[in-house]
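Build the 3D complex.
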Amino acid sequence: MHSLSSQAVRPLSLPFARSHYFRRFLPLSLPIFHNSKSHPKIFTITPKAPVMTIRNCSSISAKPSSELRNKRSSSDSSDEKLRALRQLFSKPGVGIDAYIIPSQDAHQSEFIAECYMRRTFISGFTGSAGTAVVTKDKAALWTDGRYFLQAEKQLSSSWILMRAGSLGVPTTIEWLNNVLAPGGRVGIDPFLFSSEAAEELKQGIAKKNHELVFLYDKNLVDEVWNESRPKPPNKPVRVHDLKYAGVDVASKLLSLRSELADAGSSAIIISMLDEVAWLLNLRGSDVPHSPVMYAYLIVEIDKAKLFIDTSKVSTKVMDHLKQAGIELLPYDSILSEVESLAAQGAKVWMDISSLNAAIVNTFNSACERYYESLESKRKSKSDDSNGWSGGPTGIYRVSPVSLAKAVKNDSELEGMQSCHLRDAAALVQFWVWMEEKINENVKLTEVEVAEKLLEFRSAQSGFLDTSFDTISGSGANGAIIHYRAEPDSCSVVDDKKLFLLDSGGQYVDGTTDITRTVHFGEPTSRQKECFTRVLQGHIALDEAVFPENMPGFVLDAFARSSLWKIGLDYRHGTGHGVGAALNVHEGPQGISFRFGNMTPLQKGMIVSNEPGYYEDHAFGIRIENLLVVKEVNTPNRFGGISYLGFEKLTFVPIQAKMIDLSLLSAAEFDWLNDYHSQVWEKVSPLVEGSARQWLWDNTRPLVKQ
Amino acid sequence: MHSLSSQAVRPLSLPFARSHYFRRFLPLSLPIFHNSKSHPKIFTITPKAPVMTIRNCSSISAKPSSELRNKRSSSDSSDEKLRALRQLFSKPGVGIDAYIIPSQDAHQSEFIAECYMRRTFISGFTGSAGTAVVTKDKAALWTDGRYFLQAEKQLSSSWILMRAGSLGVPTTIEWLNNVLAPGGRVGIDPFLFSSEAAEELKQGIAKKNHELVFLYDKNLVDEVWNESRPKPPNKPVRVHDLKYAGVDVASKLLSLRSELADAGSSAIIISMLDEVAWLLNLRGSDVPHSPVMYAYLIVEIDKAKLFIDTSKVSTKVMDHLKQAGIELLPYDSILSEVESLAAQGAKVWMDISSLNAAIVNTFNSACERYYESLESKRKSKSDDSNGWSGGPTGIYRVSPVSLAKAVKNDSELEGMQSCHLRDAAALVQFWVWMEEKINENVKLTEVEVAEKLLEFRSAQSGFLDTSFDTISGSGANGAIIHYRAEPDSCSVVDDKKLFLLDSGGQYVDGTTDITRTVHFGEPTSRQKECFTRVLQGHIALDEAVFPENMPGFVLDAFARSSLWKIGLDYRHGTGHGVGAALNVHEGPQGISFRFGNMTPLQKGMIVSNEPGYYEDHAFGIRIENLLVVKEVNTPNRFGGISYLGFEKLTFVPIQAKMIDLSLLSAAEFDWLNDYHSQVWEKVSPLVEGSARQWLWDNTRPLVKQ
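Done.
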């Protein structure tokens, strides 16, 4: 089996030739400023339940995040902001011809804090995905098909809407190369671009001799925003209890340090917020949906430093960190610490697909200064000793924390199992309520339904937040894969249409993500056939057994096979990783038709199982459970290896009336009855009254006609 | 979908920097002189029915070919040959320190003529796969696990046996780099290495400053062989009737020339024997098992030249060629013609994975001379005109004939269908005979059985040859995937053991390849379970429906899924391409767990469907049919594309007593009965008497217990 990982872990330790090592590394990665949606990548992160998005893909990708709702800029204020921004272009120390404002924060987060929503502020466009580019006389905003209508409404006439992916629409690079006079200076905030993305941008605009200018000191949009800019989040950080985390910080650091040593590294810089949270057994509330806090972490062989707004850190958390030998430093001091790492000759492990360009560039510049000063010292002293081998180096590899975090330990799995049952209880109560309201002919909108679901979830112990914005899609809205109901425009849920509900919760002990599709009246035979085939795909993946060391994409076809038989398919991956009381979308594993992700599925990993089918302007179907990869006790072990399979985390009934039983094989029929009997057994102790009755009605064994 | 083809067709037209373009092209290809069996490659050619071998993989691959049986060299004669060969090392114009003798002919053929079996002659080792390397004081032979015992017996004490793939055994490059003093000269016959392989070798030995020396003039082994060397084959070439070929030569050339024009090429050199045969609607008898003739072909925009021993060409064939505007030239004049292509400034399309190093190097050297002379002319005449754009160029791409040949037209498919029914009739007669003999307690060896099968096939109209050496494996021998029974050592076929029979025929209208596994007594329940799971995999692939533009590897898991459920698997691919009255193994498509082959399956392609299971020292199971990719008339066409599936070519009963019916789903059970009813319907008209009765007994509907 040909594993990409051998490429991904090859150290490229060239302290000088930056453009050179980038060129060697980049062919593996997504050309983010080009229209190449189908390019496979190691990290494929799913922005909403089923998925297609790719980390760092700022210009065209889907990055759901909470949006600024009540801030529709009038045309005047938009022009005013642009004018103010352009004035800064010619300030001393700036001197640029264009400025790019992406959606990202400094940590490549899926969900970001309001103070970092600079693209929304400057453009007035509140969609989660978009890139703004402002030149001295033009302003353009790129977004994808989900947001064309919204952007048309929200952008003032000063803005050109770039419908990314549409025929003839240029990429940001192509547009810049077209509108700027050759030799232009394009400014960015280097914190908001991954190092990889910045390099790609740099090379793209270099074709027209434009220069990419890193403006470290101040984000220009923040200067315009000024007083009215929301403060950075400062909610308190909490310790993630060892009974949920399973492994203490000292042990995690020990493992990490051993990996560092194996790789010849003396330090690693970690910027992904979920990686910092996982490694330190900490949780935060800085962004919606993900229990993380803004921070960087540097782990060295003999010490570790957390860069964080210390006002968030209580004495208890302080003690917890001290015990693990972790020093606290201000969030903003990360760059100066990166510089001293270089000055001390550290060999620094950096994942340039997630680390921002400010950090990587600062380290590399400091390395260059180190070697220059060494060179001049040697010249002046005619020193023959070779100080090079002791010098600083960047070691470019995929973060080892990503994989360590993906493979769950027993305590994490226990928490996941437990919160999934409480989540199931909330859903059962919700479905009962729904059916009652529908029976009473109460008019319910998609948004009201989502709010009611949140109410039921909130009543469960340990509930913290939704794990993403609920997708509540009635009828044709269900066919919009990334649908988000808005109060003023959303549809009614009734007994005439299919209803797709994709939602999840963040609990103190785990994270859930579940989709069910139901009909409150009589589904058509077409809807039943499609639903049944989606279910057959769901069952085929659920029951798969496969040899260890196999990338997830090999299983993707199992989930599509039944749909393919009648010429149907779905345009998203089948499974994404899920964090344990962390991000609802995490890598590095995945189950997708994108063959580029060669990460083998491993025992303890969690993946979603969510095949679907979407009929434009009619209905959408998706059935999603979360699964844990487990070892299967097969009677044979051909090749002397382990064989793996899945164990379900999600226990919520699948609506029987949607199933055309005549299409099911005996084995599929048995699967369904077996699943429902498990649902009853596990969830019935958690509900009572009408909910318990509903659960019984919806889990009792079906009889084959 | 990420298609490798975009890489494969990227023109690399650098007339000078040879080492440079090779380095760019090579990462796609197999490092053949290294132990990297698992490396994926565009062309994966299956040497025996199920398969693992890779074109050009001289040192460790399986290239079954007819072998020199009665020529066991004594130790004395082997030493004598080595002495004679070494004497040539110091001849004027040679001057080498080592000579590599691979198994190949000049066309990368799977089956080769006896006069080209130089490695067998020099070493005495008759196995199909092996590479000999002779230095001034050492001689070593690399072969793989299948041949260790045989090589031990056949090699004299002058030879070191290199057990390729075993721990600690060096590759040929490693060994050369180890035993030669730095700066050595390693000679090869450049006709016997693909250009790609030679470049890899060159780079590998350059690490120790060794030089790769191309000895064009005469193969050194041939000089030693001398008088006793068999003459090159000169059997007459015949025209492949248009009713079988379907498309005339003029039309094929028209399409090819349009592809050349699209690629900016003015000529193409074709060396794969099946490509030449297919393009010219010719067939030959120069090698066993493949109806091809030794020849090269150069197609230019306005002319075409066939390089062939003209004594093979009858007046009828001559007329056929003349009609298509094809000129005849002596086989040996290929290099001088390649030189004149360069001199004329041709842009030559070359597939460096199949074209030999002699041709590619000759072209490139001629290009260099062209530009040097241009440069000196410009200097002397102070000529400012730029002659460069008009100059010769090599355009490095996968051969377009390979794909064109793989997609069969209606006439080719009709011939394939027809010959498969006659082949089935022969097999039915054979199985009846087998059962009778076993019942009579006649002792039959594996070899006798294979010979009898050939007898039945030979009686069918249009039969020409076996399409590969029959694999006739009784009991434990069935578990040796590449087993070849030898008269003096083979086992008996009886009613105590499983019997695996993988065989095929070349007919005037098509090519067959079929495997059945049977038991003449009572199979164990273990054997039945394994057989049934292999059958379930076979059925799953047979019934698959999938979107167009999908590489075959996506379907591979379907064929393994049932085995995986109990922890079993098989170590070979599931399907290979098959030529129409041509090579039994052809590319570019395949169905395999090697994810490197991104060639999409296309309507009209033929693939084998041959899952298996092999229990070491016990038994082997394989069930193989050939399938044609066809468009399926699905009720939907999601994405506006076609959905594809398979149509069977092979119609021979699957032994019911081997099946554990309780494991089959209702759909699988129906598949089996439906298949057998088709077998009866199609094959019963071709057999009579006891064969017809046997066919009825073995195809009548089974009843689910």
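The longest helix of chain B spans residues 410-439.
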